[in-house]
Amino acid sequence: DAKTTQPTSMDCAEGRAANLPCNHSTISGNEYVYWYRQIHSQGPQYIIHGLKNNETNEMASLIITEDRKSSTLILPHATLRDTAVYYCIVSRATSGAGSYQLTFGKGTKLSVIP
Amino acid sequence: EAQVTQNPRYLITVTGKKLTVTCSQNMNHEYMSWYRQDPGLGLRQIYYSMNVEVTDKGDVPEGYKVSRKEKRNFPLILESPSPNQTSLYFCASSRQGRVYEQYFGPGTRLTVT
Fold first, then answer.
1. 3-state helix, strand, coil in chain A (%, to 5)
2. Which of A39, A3, A41, A63 is nearest to A111 (CA)?
3. Contact status, residue A70 vs residue A55, Cβ threshold 8 Å
């Protein structure tokens, strides 16, 4: 699986958009980008995923650059409850050797400030 | 309510005393997995199971055993716990083919003295 690079921490004002970047310059053509978050000591929570098109759901938007070497998770109106560690993961979605493992890195600690 | 449950949630034990952490899911998921989380190291996969009677090692399997005799249950067994297995453990499950969308349990905080 491709390696990802995320900033260690970020701050965001409550009510503003939180933009969390992720670099994955070695991503291959059949690898997806997944985002999870973990609120303090709780189990991680799936947020969104994408291959090459931008994606949006009720939680967030995912913007993937045209060359697929980086992506940005956008929380449109951050609240205090969005304070968490956000993980960007790159992995294949279909069956195959090693593809059933999601490898979590260290993520970005997002602090939403009142 | 769809959920993954783990028991116990907190456990303090001594070196060498066998223990089992249970994990159960009510979503009929084929895929289940165990992770451990340690400060500075993030989440690391211990074992995973693609279906009943099918298990495989993750990144850090040493010192752990698992079994998958029923679809809903995936217990984690520490035959002879050691202090370096003190950690926060998470169980997760997902549908086969949507393994990227894993549902995590609340975690088990284990301390081995």
1. 5, 45, 50
2. A39
3. no
Q: CB A44 to CB B43 under 8 A?
A: yes
Strand partners, A23: A5, A70
Rounded to 5 degrees, what are φ and ψ at A52? -145, -20
Does residue A44 belong to the interface with chain B, where contact is any CB pair within 8 Å? yes
Q: What is the DSSP letter of B73?
A: B
DSSP per-residue string spanning A25-65:
TT--TTEEEEEEEE-TTSPPEEEEEESSS-EE-SS-EEEE-
Residues A68-94 have pLDDT tens digits of 999 999 999 999 999 999 999 998 765
Continuous segment of H or E residues that includes residue A33: strand A31-38
pLDDT at A2: 66
Least confident of A6-15, A94-103, B73-82: A94-103
Residues of chain B with pLDDT under 50: none
Query: B14's torsion region: left (phi>0), alpha (psi -120 to 50) or beta?
Result: beta
Helix segments in chain B, DSSP class H: none
- What DSSP state is assigned to residue B61? -
- The first and second tokens of residue A66, run together, are 């045209």
Strand partners, B91: B34
Nearest partner of B47 among B29, B30, B20, B66, judged by Cα: B66
Structure tokens at B84: 């370096």
Give the closest residue to B89 by CA, choosing from B67, B69, B104, B71.
B104
On chain A, the residues whose CB falls within 8 A of the CB of B102 are: 44, 46, 102
